[in-house]
Amino acid sequence: MVKSKGLTGEIKVPGDKSITHRAIILGSLSEGKMKIIDPLLGEDCLSTINIFRKLGVDIRVNEVNKEIIINAQGYRNFVEPTQVLDTGNSGTTTRLLSGVLAGLPFMSVMSGDDSIAKRPMDRVIEPLRLMGVDIIGSQNNSRTPLVINSMNNVVNINGVTYDMQVKSAQVKSAILFAGLYAKSDVMLKEQVTSRNHTELMFQQFGIEVEKQDDYIHLPAHSIDKLVTTDIQVPGDISSAAFFIVAGLIIPGSHIVIRNVGTNMTRSGIIEVVKAMGGQISLKSVSDGAEPICDIEVKYTAQLNATDVYGDMIPTLIDEIPIIALLMTQARGRSVIRDAEELKVKETNRIDKVVESLNQLGYHIEATDDGMIIYGQEKESMQSTRFSSFNDHRIGMLLAIANLLETEEIEIDHIDAVNVSYPSFMNDLRRLQGGN
Ligand SMILES: O=C(O)C1=C[C@@H](OP(=O)(O)O)[C@@H](O)[C@H](O)C1
Ligand SMILES: C=C(OP(=O)(O)O)C(=O)O
User: Which residues are recorded as binding phosphoenolpyruvate (predicted)?
Assistant: First the structure.
């Protein structure tokens, strides 16, 4: 007997984190008033907002209407910050802003929390230096704090032709943001296509970024083409993922998740659920720059194992913790590979997912680039005291995993969920109550 009854009802998850960050950045760089509708107001996006406020941008948050209003004077009117810019727990803020700050005629210093201090920054420092940016980082240019300093207050950024070595949308975006100010074109090639929200939003702001053969092409002096616009943010599929999986694995569940962003570079979890035989269906709501769907899931008694690897990994990288739980419920052995990037997230998510699911009694093993999950093999829990390790996605994974247990578990540092989904526990309770 599982503890929870089925989750039922409708839900709207908060706005997409990646899209909200990019809208704050582009709205701040442009001139004029713009609105971000249904943004994520989680801690990571608030870190991005606070940094632009320190650069002098007028940004208001209306929590009631769920809007961010930016009244910007353009990047030329930014002021030199007098303090270290705090990126909190947000890798996206740190990496994307390293590209943005590169084009500003002053010195800025960025650093974040203990987790950010461990995350690799050489991946952005190296390409930015190739573009002529004066950026240094601690630990031999590999970690925060990052110091970005325009020589004699003159910005001099070159374009670059660059074949990316890491599978990372944050690195791609850092180069593209720096490339906005470049005096020659940027040509960027990815090994594997990562989320393309930066490219799509550049186009919404009037910038002619386009794919040329295998390269993303950004013309020189693109910053001068920026025209501000309002941005409607779709629901975050990475947040929806927790309820997609809960709906599939908790007996009696039937959930509709409204207005979720289903951009193909992000929606790998849908393909995984289909491959496993999960009851899921999508109904298109809008087919604009970022496609939006309602997603309906129903409890599925018979799920089959599947493997996840290669080009699929960037399309579901943040969902892997909760996909691993889904796989524990499937018949057979599932393998996740090519996912070494998980080791450099808020925590080492290969280790922390395996440790947490093992403690719950599941049979799962860590590998060098992923994990092996032996479905439907469960022993009793080793202890009821767990930790999110200050990683929001591990916290939410544990809260959903607990629904399958007869005993209540304790999750230390569950507040970590505020990074990407502040209303997560409330939404979960609401679905448990059936509305
Ligand atoms: O560009 C982005 O908004 C993000 C890209 C991904 O990181 P990487 O680019 O490091 O893979 C993802 O894990 C992160 O949550 C958000
Ligand atoms: C990895 C994540 O975010 P970031 O890299 O922005 O810290 C995440 O949200 O799971």
Answer: 17, 91, 119, 170, 349, 393
Establish whether this prediction's ipTM goes over 0.85. Answer: yes
CA pair distance 315, 327, nearest whole angstrom: 17
Residue with tokens 């309602």: 294
Minimum-distance ligand 2 atom for the alpha carbon of 419:
9
Tell whether the torsion through CA atoms of 327, 329, 332 and 333 is positive or negative: positive
In terms of pTM, does the model score above 0.90? yes
**Cβ–Cβ < 8 Å for 196, 210:** no
Per-residue confidence (pLDDT) for residue 92, from 0 to 100: 98
Say if CB 166 and CB 142 are below 8 A apart.
no
Q: How far apart are CA 404 and CA 203, in angstroms?
A: 44
Q: Is the CB of 21 under 6 A from ligand 2?
A: no
Is residue 137 within 8 Å of residue 122, measured between CB atoms?
A: yes
Nearest to 92 by CA among 200, 16, 12, 187: 16
The token pair at 395 is 């916290």
Sequential DSSP letters for 285-300? EE-SSS-EEEEEEE--
Angstrom distance (rounded) from CA 213 to CA 32: 35
CB distance 262 to 416 below 8 Å: no
Residue 63 sits at φ, ψ, to 5 deg, of -70, -30
> Catalytic annotation on 58?
no
Integer-rounded Cα radius of gyration of the chain: 21
